[in-house]
Amino acid sequence: MVKANIWRGLMAVGMKLHHFAGPKPPRPDFKIVIPSRLSPRGGTFKLVFYVPDSYHTAPDDYRFPVVVNFHGGGFTLGTGTDDARWASTIVKTVDAVLVSVEYRLAPEYPFSTGVEDGTDAVIYLASHAEELRLDPQRMALSGFSAGGNFAFTVPLMLHDLQNGVGKRSLISTNNNYPASSRPSSSRLASSYPSSSYPSSSYPSSQSSSTLQLPRRPEAYSSNSSTTSILKLTDLEPTELEIHQKVPDLNLRAIVSFYPPTDFRISRQDKRETNPVPEMNLPPMLTKLFDESYMHPPNMIDLTDPYLSPAAGSDKLLKAAYPQDIILYTCEYDMLNAEGIAFGERLSGPQVGKTVHGGLVKEVPHAFDKKPNPIKFPVSADRCYAEACSELKRIFGGRVSVEDRRQLDKSKVVDRFEDDLQRDRVTGEGERLMDETDMGDGVGGNDNGRWIGQPSIHDKMPNQENRIP
User: What range does the domain containing 166 cover?
Assistant: First the structure.
């Protein structure tokens, strides 16, 4: 606990420096505290909202697409405002609402509380979409590092809930409506004609909620203090609160940046896949992450897809994931090889997803989160921009091919969706994984080389360990 708090303090300083560089990212527009219904621990956690300017001027019946985001930090560090730059790109490029989940952190809340909080957040937002002006038929998930893991594991838990698998169940809470918080209690006004906005996928009906949607004050700016957030009235009960019913929703995309996808592989084996080992995260930090999140170790099943999505069966991944997946891995990262392998598997014939993004050359883990107070990396800015262009297209907007390939101007990217590049990505994954004995050791020789050059998936832990 002490070590985690020390690292949290250090990360907070780093994020302040990261956010200091211009242009400064926005502050949250408002926050809502919601109850946990999936975790046996109960409790509450926060949802942090970033909304586009049009949120305050659009017609009352318009519903915005929503991106539910999970921050990084090894499941142990970080806050819901860490990805404010990503939020800024979302609201400006996609004209969508970004909701950052302040999931509860290990070691206080080890596996699988974070996954449960993330799933709770998606269900809550879809249930209260009418009042929050969200379109539950145009939802996406995004995440960074540990949050990128949640972007892949939350859909699995959600799918199991929707299909009554029985691994988790929604429970009733005594405090069904934690207070919501917004910067202003002014009633939303429509200053644009309805023709200025496309029809929402979600039909609007008159809500009986007393929640007052805010108009952003003229004096409000991206640098203003969040201490002006005020407590407002509660949201109206829905089928979620009354009958613990999972609402109708549609996940349209997953966006995941440099995620861990397979905890069946040891940290040491992962480290050895990095061609520049000195750029790996220090062992003392990754040890803290693993011991905090996967606790107690004798009770953790590393083949649980809620922990290791790569352990899920092809059938599960095909059923639970949306068609469009945007995945970025980093060349100088211990998580690169498993990320490539997972992306290749998702885009393969057995799962059949359309995987965008790819391997970003010559960058380390969290290359977009450098504590540089002078300048935000151009490559990170373009990576965000092209991912948001994909989201805009997926949500029904029009974008150019150039918009979807902006990162190419700064970095070489081996892309999953290109046939030629796919061969290059697979070759890169094979090269990285051939240099170490990853998995259970079967098939390796004394110097770590694999005999017979099996496919990249054969080098991962055995297929029989995948959970249907």
Answer: 2-55+65-179+241-465
